[in-house]
Design goal:
By secondary structure, the protein is mainly α. Helices cover 68% and strands 4% of the residues. The protein has a domain at 28-183 and 428-471. It is found in: Cell membrane.
Amino acid sequence: MHTTTALLANAAPPQLLPARQLMAFTLASHILLVPFGVALPCITLLMHHRGLRRGDDVALKLARRWSAVMAVQFAIGVVTGTVLSFEFGLLWPGMMGRWGDVFGLGFGVEAWAFFLEAVLIAIYLYGWRRLKPWTHFWLGLPLPLAALLGAFGIIAANSWMNTPQGFTLDVAGRPVDVDVRQAIFTPMFGPEYWHFAVAMFLTAGYVVAGVYAVGLLRGRRDRYHRLGFALPFTAAAILTPIQLVLGDSIARSVFHKQPIKFAATEVVWKTDTHVPEYIFGRLHADGTVSGGLRIPQLDSVLAGFRPGTRVTGLSSVPPEDRPTATQATIVHWAFDVMVIIGSLLILLALWYAWYWWRHRDLPRSRWFYRCAAVAGAACLVAVECGWVTTEVGRQPWIVYGHMRVSAAVTPTGASSLWTMFTVVVVVYVAIFASFLAVLLKMRTRWRIADASEASATAPQAPEADTPYGPRGEPLATVTGAAPGERHGRPPGGAS
C-alpha cells in the first residue's frame, strides 16, 4: 500500500502541487464573497419593499446603505472572479481543451449573468432620489434573478464535473455527440444548486444580522439596529431548517451517484452493512480509524434509513482511483464541521422563534446576540467546508471517472507557478484589506451622519436624508404615507 502511494506521488508532475494550491487559494477567497453577490440584493430589496409599503424611512435608509455595500462587494467580486476565469484555462488546459465543449456553456451563462447584474446594480444605485420610488424598486427586482442565474451557470459546470454526462466518446477518447441539456441538468445539479443557493441566502442573512447584533451588544438599541438585525436574521432563521433537509438530500445523492466520495466523507474503508458513523476521527492508510466518536450502525441508517444498508467502501476501487487517507480525513472533518455548524444554527433559529412566539419582540438575552454575532462567521466557515467536501472528495478526478487532475494540469514549470501563487496572495491580501477599509470608512461616515441627524444644531449629512425626492423633503410627502406612518410599527417588530 505504502509503495503504491509513493509511486503515485512520484509520478505526479511537479507543477501539480502549486497549481492545486493556487486554485484552492483563489477559490477559497472568492467563495467568501459569493453569498453577498447572490443573496444581498434580495435582502436589500426585502428591506426596500418594507420601507415603501410602510412609509418607513429607517428601512429605506438601511436598504440604501446595503445597496452601497452590495456595489463595493460586486466590484471586488469582479476582480476575484476574473482571476478564476483565467486560471481555468491557464492551470487546467487539459480539462478545458478536451471537455470545454461539453460543459463550457455553464461558464458562458455565468459570464452573461455577471454582466447583467453589473448593469442592474448600476441602475439600482442611480435610481435613489432620481426615480419614482416604486419604479426604482421594480427596476431593482431582477437583481436577485440575475444573481441566481450566475449561480446556475457555475453549479451546472461543477455538477457536471461531479457527474459527467451528455456525450459519447470516440475511439480516441474524445467527447462527441454532445447533448447540452443533459450536460447541464446532471443528476447532481438539482441537489447541488438548491443546497448552494439556500446556503448563500442563509449565510448572507446571518452575516448582515451579525453586524447589527454587535451594535446591539454595544448598547445601540435604536430602531435602526433592531430593524437591521431583525429582517435578515428572520430570513436566515426561516431558511435554516430548510437547509437541513437540502443537506440531507445532497448527501443521499452523493451516496447513490458518487459512492467513493461518500466513502471518503464518512471514512468508510470496507464495503459493508451496519456501518458505524464517525464524528471526526482520522483514517489511516491501512483502513483503520483512530480518534473521534464512533456511533454503531448510524452511517448505514443515515444512508438508507436502515442498518442493513450496504455502503461502498474506499477499498472497493484501486488506490489510484480514490482519495488518499489524508484527503479522506480532510473531507470527513470538513463535512462534520459543516454539519455541526448547521445543527447549532438550528438551535439558534429555534431560540429566536420561541422568544418571538411568546413575546412578539426580539430576544433580550446578551448571550443570544453573542451567538448571533458569531453565526455569520460560522456560516462562512461552513461555506468553505462545503467547498472542501465537494472538491477534495472528488479526488483524484477533475472530471469524475474520466480525467484525473494530473492529466489536466498545465505544463508550465513549478517555479513559475509558485511565483504566480506568491503574487496572487499579495494582491488578494491588498484587495481584501482595501475592501475592509472601504467598509469601515462607509460605516464611520454613516455614524457621523446619524449623529448629526440626532443633533438639533448640526446640519444633516446626505446619508441621513430621505432616499427619495429633493434633499430635506419628508418621506411622507414623497411616498404618500400619513405623517404618523413614517416609522411603521414600534421598535422591536421583525415583520
